Amino acid sequence: MGVELKHPMKPELTTDEAARGRFVSGIRSFILNDLAADLHTAFDERAAPAFARENGRSPQTSNEAHVAMRGDPAFNIYSAMRVQAQKMVWNAAGSIVERDLERMEAEAKKVDNIPGSVTLNPDMDIPRNVDAIEVHLMPGSYTRGGNSLEAGAVYDQGLAVFSMGLMGANLDDIGLSMSAYVSGKFPEFKPERILDTGCTIGHNTLPWKQTFPDAKVEAIDAAAGGLCYASARAKMQGQEVHFKQMSADALDYEDESFDLVFSSMFLHELSAKARAKAFEEAYRVLKPGGLLLHMELPPNDQMGAFEGFYLDWDSWYNSEPFYKGFRDEDPKSLCENGGFGAEDYFQFVVPSIGIYGEDAVAEAIANEDANAVDSETTGRLAEGIMWFGFGAWKE
Fold first, then answer.
1. What letters, b where the CB count within 10 A reaches 16 and e where it falls short, cover 53-84?
2. Over residues 309-329, mean pLDDT
3. From CA 237, how far away is CA 218, in angstroms rounded?
4. Mean per-residue pLDDT for 303-316?
5. Deepest of 33, 34, 51, 359, by most Cβ within 10 A of its Cβ?
6. 117 Cβ partners below 8 Å, 6+ apart?
7. How many Å from the N-terminal Cα to the C-terminal Cα in the chain?
């Protein structure tokens, strides 16, 4: 189970710290695979039948599945262990970064003159979802440590443990899978300018530069510290990316200036109002013939009651207040309301390229019906991970 980052910007781990990371990652794997299976069994054999006896039908929605499961021993054990494991992730990452931050800051200064840039906006009003909410129980959230590298380093190391190796050695599997799908599905599409919105530390930004090396790649986020870390991280991997501090719902770019606007696991951290505005802004800055693409959690209306409830767990217990609101929305409607044509919408499920390989991605491109959105693997960090993507072309 790989939980140690491979890029040169990563924190340097002691033997004990590496062992602690593997231990926490192993607990998460047990929870998200074994205990999750027990949770599903409890739903099928106890919770759903009890709900049906009381209501005359089985649970039909994520909310109803949640009501049915509350109080069940399997649900209580799963939830308690998952919350504590989440806290263990950030405790482990935080102690590592606290010890190693000074060395990391010094290493980052060595690459100041390498191509690439980071532009901060000290006058920017940081959105509350970035600063005031400790999203996924992450102490200090995305603004921890101000403009230092602390928040980015904690996020990087924490996500490595959190993801149990399922996001790739450098946490870039989403970007690699999505860019492979787009380049294979639309071989004539050659974007010259790419924008990643809500990029955090740029882990899923870099694959777009690797896939389209001649493109100018820019990435934005509202948190300054994460951007500073992202820039050093990209330079140390030999990737020229230009990071800027701004919000996706207020892009400081001219109309029709990008060929591709992308995000990964970002929309569910926005309020409904900010999310709607982000779609309008993406439409505005896209050139005619440009592509909007979001990798996200699959929508509730395309999933069964238990699968929807399982994903929505984070909204109730993992300090992600906008999570379920996003999943209750219709992706196609979000695109249409942002200005895109209904006929220009598309969605897909692509297998993790790191786990299944390029042939599996090619198979998904050739046969989109082979991978259903309503499954136990789509959008879940567990064995058999599949990524959900949706977007639209701008006419």
1. eeeeebbebbbbbbbbbeebebbeebbeebee
2. 97
3. 16
4. 96
5. 51
6. 231, 242, 243
7. 44
